[in-house]
Design goal:
Strand order of the largest sheet: 1-5-4-3-2-6-7-8
Structural class: alpha+beta
Number of helices: 4
Distance between the termini: 27 Å
CATH superfamily: Hypothetical Protein Pfu-838710-001
Radius of gyration: 16 Å
Largest sheet: 8 strands, antiparallel, barrel
Strand content: 35-45%
CATH architecture: Beta Barrel
Helix content: 10-25%
Shape: globular
CATH class: Mainly Beta
């Protein structure tokens, strides 16, 4: 997280992605996260990151199996305390922990999620696109994070609808209530309501496809 003068707060907007364009598949990283607390937006998270690992994500993906397979590639473990999201802003205090200790803690407990993260530059912003595995497959979420409020955003064409204010799609919520269990109900909900993009953050601009 970059400190833009706001201390331990992050600013982001998040979107559902239906089909990630192949042209954007660059700079992958395997991420395994374990949540030791996830309740009403408050979370305690341990994350292991293995850069350069393009691990395929499907419903059968097992977080610990992948963690063991690519343990030698993990170069960063972080412990993070999070508060609830409010208007695209969330408290987040993070510190780096020893990789060996972090890996052992993730193996030993918590509610885990696994994903491949892709980093791309689109329009005026850097974006990450998370492709989830295991019980959260086939969920794909795009996120733009800035060091201050995310206003006047250029939204990529592959973003289907905005998830910023939907707590069901936070990673900590997905760890305890995986997407597979309510995917069908959400698809019906989206079909009935149609896509939505928040209007409280200045002017939204849709980018053309790649």
């Amino acid at each position: 997280m970059t400190d833009g003068g706001y201390g331990d707060f992050e600013f982001e907007r998040r979107f559902l992605v239906r089909d990630m364009p192949e042209e954007l598949r660059d700079a992958p990283a395997l991420i395994v996260q374990s949540y030791y607390l996830a309740d009403e937006g408050y979370a305690l998270r341990l994350r292991a990151t293995a850069p350069g690992v393009d691990a395929p994500m499907d419903a059968g993906t097992d977080a610990v199996t992948l963690l063991d397979r690519y343990a030698s590639e993990v170069d960063l473990c972080t412990l993070t305390v999070k508060g609830p999201m409010a208007g695209g802003t969330r408290y987040e205090a993070e510190r780096e922990v020893d990789v060996a200790v972090g890996l052992q803690m993730i193996r030993r407990g918590g509610s885990r999620i696994v994903k491949t993260r892709w980093s791309v530059w689109l329009g005026d912003d850097g974006w990450v696109v998370d492709v989830f595995g295991g019980a959260d497959h086939p969920l794909v979420v795009a996120e733009c994070e800035r060091s201050g409020p995310v206003t006047d955003l250029q939204i990529p064409a592959f973003c289907v609808t905005e998830l910023t204010d939907d707590p069901r799609f936070s990673n900590d919520a997905l760890a305890s209530r995986p997407f597979a269990g309510w995917r069908t109900a959400y698809a019906a909900e989206l079909a009935a309501s149609g896509p939505r993009f928040l209007q409280d953050f200045g002017r939204n601009e849709r980018l053309a496809g790649p």
